[in-house]
């Protein structure tokens, strides 16, 4: 169900006189740039979004829920390409200047205008089913690691490994089409540390010494990402006494999991014990909550979230932004009243270049709350 409530600001954002929240990480233009002339960075990113059009068109053509899907997919490709052309000529032609939030929103708007609502639904359902079949083994592998620090290392690497399942990146969409996703293979091929942003040791030490009372995790993609990466990570938080809120998208966007889909996934991962309690693979699940974030994009603007999530997050002492869209391309420099963790894999060369890292590098940025 889509949210009809008015969106609000995330209550844990800092509200300092000298701090203004800006979701987008990479500055595409500066005040000195000419207002109706595309900057080199804007041109670079507009062309990056153009590269995604063929994979989106192909996915739309396969949507059996839409009549005349191939013709409508062609219409989408033409219309979105024209919008990108307009922005190259005048970056303010479609509500700009452009950023990653605007370009992703326009892409989804065009898809819906021509008749598509969720072109990745079948892929998401298939990948969720495959990942759920593997979840017990992934959890058992983590539980076999008795040292807490080593187990946290393992679980963090699992988040990175799952996060590579991202059909919004043109190159990864092509790889998925030809080979599918393989969580274990991704785990074994992670780039070695040190990563481009690597606060793993600081984060691990804080977790071991003083576990958080409540964590809000903004989740990213379906399949191996949320099921094999985030859920084992969240289960470890639960096991160590942390209440966990998983926040998922209100509406479909790329292969990101929606609130409705995540509820279904969690219901399949939990079971009721003989004493009537809900268990999540041996861990009490009463403190695991799934909420609608209010977002309808693969990136995250924390000034527009659902009031339900805002209420539930007020007493959280850890915020986790998982995935490239939510935790790297947006919110990497967001400041909070509580501890925060940005965690995800870099899947665009343009982002890697900005950070001074490598393609498929890993980001784990931990920021402690300032009293």
Automatic annotation (TrEMBL):
Taxonomic superkingdom: Eukaryota
Cofactor dependency: Mn(2+); Ni(2+)
InterPro entries: ARMT-1-like_metal-bd_sf, ARMT1-like_metal-bd, At2g17340, At2g17340_3_helix_bundle, Type_II_PanK
Gene responsible for this protein: LOC112293528
GO molecular function terms attached to this record: ATP binding; hydrolase activity; metal ion binding
GO BP: coenzyme A biosynthetic process
GO cellular component term, pick one: nucleus
Protein name: Damage-control phosphatase ARMT1-like metal-binding domain-containing protein
Statement: the UniProt record of this protein carries the keyword Metal-binding: yes
Residue ranges annotated for the Damage-control phosphatase ARMT1-like metal-binding domain, each copy included: 49-363
Alphabetically ordered keywords of this record: Hydrolase, Manganese, Metal-binding, Nickel
């Amino acid at each position: 169900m889509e949210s009809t409530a008015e969106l609000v600001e995330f209550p844990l954002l800092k509200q300092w006189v000298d701090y203004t929240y800006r979701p987008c990480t990479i500055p595409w233009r500066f005040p000195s740039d000419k207002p109706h002339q595309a900057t080199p960075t804007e041109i670079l990113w507009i062309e990056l979004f153009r590269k995604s059009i063929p994979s989106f068109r192909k996915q739309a053509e396969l949507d059996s829920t839409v009549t005349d899907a191939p013709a409508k997919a062609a219409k989408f490709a033409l219309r979105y390409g024209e919008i990108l052309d307009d922005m190259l000529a005048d970056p303010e032609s479609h509500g700009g200047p452009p950023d990653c939030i605007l370009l992703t929103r326009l892409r989804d708007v065009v898809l819906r205008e021509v008749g598509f609502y969720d072109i990745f639904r079948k892929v998401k359902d298939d990948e969720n089913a495959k990942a759920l079949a593997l979840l017990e083994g992934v959890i058992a592998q983590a539980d076999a690691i008795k040292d807490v620090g080593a187990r946290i290392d393992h679980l963090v690497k699992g988040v990175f490994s799952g996060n590579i399942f991202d059909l919004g990146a043109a190159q990864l969409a092509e790889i998925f089409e030809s080979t599918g996703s393989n969580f274990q293979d991704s785990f074994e091929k992670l780039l070695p540390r040190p990563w481009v942003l690597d606060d793993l040791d600081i984060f691990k030490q804080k977790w071991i010494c003083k576990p958080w009372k409540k964590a809000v995790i903004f989740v990213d993609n379906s399949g191996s990402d949320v099921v094999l990466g985030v859920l084992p990570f969240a289960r470890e938080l639960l096991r160590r006494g942390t209440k966990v809120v998983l926040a998922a998208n209100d509406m479909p966007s790329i292969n990101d999991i929606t609130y409705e889909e995540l509820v279904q996934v969690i219901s399949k991962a939990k079971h009721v014990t003989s004493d009537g309690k809900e268990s999540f693979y041996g861990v009490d699940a009463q403190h695991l909550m799934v909420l609608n974030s209010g977002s309808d994009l693969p990136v995250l603007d924390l000034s527009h979230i659902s009031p339900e999530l805002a209420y539930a997050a007020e007493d959280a002492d850890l915020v986790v932004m998982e995935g490239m869209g939510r935790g790297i391309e947006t919110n990497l420099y967001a400041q909070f009243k509580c501890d925060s963790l940005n965690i995800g894999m870099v899947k665009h060369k343009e982002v890697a270049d900005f950070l001074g890292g490598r393609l498929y590098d890993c980001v784990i940025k931990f920021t402690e709350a300032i009293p």
